[in-house]
Amino acid sequence: MIELYILLIVAIGAGIVAVEIKDLLASAISLGVVGFSVAIMFILVQAPDLAIVQIVVEVLTVIIFVGVILKTTHIDTTWTKEKEIRDYLAKGIFAFFAIFFLTFSLLAFKELPGFGKPIMKIASHYLIKGFEEIKAANQVAAVILDFRGYDTLGEATVLFTSVIGVLTILRKIGKTK
Amino acid sequence: MLPYIGCIILFLIGIYAILTKRNIIKIAIGFCLLEYAVNLFFALIGYKKGSLAPIYTQINQQRNFVDPIPQALVLTAIVIGLGTTALLLSVAIRLHEKYKTFDIKEIKRLKE
Amino acid sequence: MNYLPLFTALPLLGAFLTPLLSKIFEKIGDIISTIITTLLLILSIYSTFLLPIFGNIYVYEIGKWSLSPIPLGIIFAFDSLSLLMVLAINLLSFACAIYSVRYLDGYTGRWKFWTLFLLMVAGLNGIAITGDLFNLFVFTEISAISSYALVAFGVEKEDLEASFKYQVIGEIGGLTILLAIALIYAKTSTLNMADIANTLTNENKGILFWFIVSLLTFGFLIKSALFPFHFWLPDAHSQAPAPISAMLSGIFIKILGIYSLSRLVFNIFGLNRSNAPHYFDILIVLGILSIIIAGFIALRQTNYKRLLAYSTISQVGYIFVGLGIGNFWGVVGALALLFAHALGKGLLFLTAGSVEKTSGTLNIEELCTSQKRLPFYGVIYTLGALSLAGVPPFLGFFPKLFLILGAIKEKMLGVGIVLGIFSVLTLAYLLKITNKVFTNKKEGEKVGVPISTIFSFLLLIGLIFILGVFYFNYLYPNLIEKAGEAIMRGIDYAKLVLMR
Amino acid sequence: MKGMTVIVKTITKLLCGLIFLYGIYIIAHGHLTPGGGFAGGVIIAASFILLILAFGSEEFKEQMGYLYSSIFESVGGLLFLLIALFGLLLGISFFYNFLPKGKLFMLFSSGIIPLCNLAIGIKVGAGLFAIFLAIAASRFIIKE
Lengths: 177, 112, 500, 144
Prior knowledge:
Low-confidence stretches of chain A: none
Order of helices and strands of chain B: HHH
Mean pLDDT of chain A: 88
Strand content of chain A: under 5%
Oligomer: heterotetramer
Number of strands of chain B: 0
Shape of chain B: elongated
Mean pLDDT of chain B: 88
Order of helices and strands of chain A: HHHHHHH
Structural class of chain B: mainly alpha
CATH architecture of chain B: Orthogonal Bundle
Shape of chain A: extended
Largest sheet of chain A: none
Number of helices of chain B: 3
Distance between the termini of chain A: 63 Å
Low-confidence stretches of chain B: none
Strand content of chain B: under 5%
Structural class of chain A: mainly alpha
Radius of gyration of chain B: 19 Å
């Protein structure tokens, strides 16, 4: 699985670039690099469904980001060489939090079943029932639309909600009085 | 174990952007990184060594598959992430229109 | 009770129909939402009669996927606690829907408001009845996203700023919850809440367990705005349109934060005072800090709605102290206060909306000098405020009594004394508005009140008064005591659900 | 937003229909191969987005775009919800897979799954197109 590690390093590097670079357009494109490496990692962990969705969603996300930046400005005005005390304070708090979180999660992950050895208590039943009772070749489709169809209704509703939300927020005038 | 730690580092980069950056677009990018990290972590959980994607084919009737449930859940999570990003960016456009800046230090009209 | 899916399906149906039909008739949203919230209220009242017949817990299997031997599909697990929540949600959303009909006259984009409102109600109902962990997350996101958009409904500068802040904080909470769900799935390989509880009891509680608990607690405390995580609430709840403020303060933070957290902590992880005393001590400390700090900040506020928002933080503190006390009376007090606060704070925010409509401002000093007399709103506001502060004949009296009783039974006299003393503070800051806005006007023009407003106000104040007077005749034995028992049942919840 | 050069326009003319067809294929075969309603819906939205990016949004009637996408989105959502509710109407259960399951690897198999994929595809395609129009394409804030 050496490819997975390389891609993870690429994703982390691109993530740091996306956060730290001055030009917002470059930042959005670095975000695209992270998204596409995540998509390739999905292929490596045998999740082609996820990879397809991740690629198309990533394209759309980058388009929206670029659209917003082109409409407004692409220069990060908050990016300065000289720092204020407040910035150092925020970084200090973050460093403290990061170390704490990393140690806690490292200790916690030791108790998980190792990478590549899932328990699959329910999943093994799903794989048999999906084949024999639902007759779906793609087991992920069987899970999202039959066993857990109600979740997918929720998912579609989330998207509907955010579309209506975007249209609401982009109204020109809110109050008439 | 190692891939999990990579995800946590990506997660922390996202948190770093949200906590320390003052630019709204950078904060939105931090959110995207957070989402990717959690999604990737969830997908990695379902991976089983030496197994195939959970799709039956006519040629290969082998039944050694990875766990399909995390994939279904991550699919939902990706869509939710797209929705929240779109909403955050639409607020960002409106804020830029009203204040002519992305700096959250200057967007401060509500006080204690 | 096989109508349970309607609790989410009906509002979703309304939400999908509203954009479609509003192309034909602009105000169709008013009719659709009124009908649907009425139907939901009828369904939830009907459930109060039906649930005891099923032994106080009803399990509905979606898609006919049987729960035994292994829980394949998503289930609804509807027990007494869910019943109390569903009743509170639908009572308040009914009152808010009726009130909004006239309130929306000053806004554009009417159908967008109604669509988002119905989606929010669907999300809240979905959280209250579900028995599946990931489903809980999905419905949390539905209601959260619709509330982000509704906070910015006025699209003024301040609204957008408040919405942005709320969105950033809320999404951090949401993603933390998702991370915790991923860890739970990795550990137990199931998503059914009862099954998770069953699996976790057989394992020892190591670092992973506490990591999951702390992630979830962090996420849900953000959503419920307890003290160190409260800073988004005053902005969001004061900038939203008044009916939305009423929904957010009244029921939203309680379902997303308090209900979800108490369900998970008590029923799924099986924590209680004897096996995790420090966890509950932390809740008590944070709760008391909320009560004191938010109470004093509320006293200094000059904005009507901001004062009410800080009061909400302080009352959430009371609820968390009750959960932290952790014995039967503490939990019952917390739930009773949740119900009383939902109706009371909803009513107060609705009066704020009417005052803003008639006077054009919410600044208390400006209202003090304005030339409008508002006797009806004044009376309603004062009665609601008395109930919130815990004055005897009203609904808010017994909850605080239960809380103090619980503290004394657990031998925490200090906590009981703090709770008692700071009730006075609540009364002080709430009556500040009565004193400044409503009473000191001898003359001036009297303002008419729309009928829909009168109806929703009288509904809420009538419930607060009648349920308060006949507390032990109906509300306590039928709803609150049983809900308290449902929480105190602990992980026997899992057995009850899986036995069906 | 302005249009692009003539090369881009010509290639877009050739590709756009193919991308649309590919989206339909992904939706229709969602239960057999990787993909499904969501991925296919985004691809269909992408074909429209490509058109607008290449030809510019001046020639495009925005209000019609909002109208149609909002109608299609509601229709997709309603379709999905009604499929779910049909099981309840039959008196069996919410989200009951009421259709005959057919034979494995056939296009018309596995009951309601292809129908649900179609509903989600319509809904997602229309919804994402509306988001794109509102955030990235339109030069002005929506008037209302």
